[in-house]
Amino acid sequence: MLTMVALIANLILFFIAKSGSSVNSVVLIVVCSVIVAIIGLPLLIFFIFHIYLMITGRTTRELIK
Q: Is the N end or the C end of the chain the one with fewer CB atoms within 10 Å?
């Protein structure tokens, strides 16, 4: 996922530089990293929750009841 963000950031930088505008690449990388963190954190928590369910041998239905 981080690779895809890096690819998109590089493409954006390429097209901006091609048009003659100057943009600080560090700012763009930080913004993309924050977006990935916002999306990735809930996915990581969801993954850890399901690993916990597998270790305890339970299902989500059993956990809800």
A: C
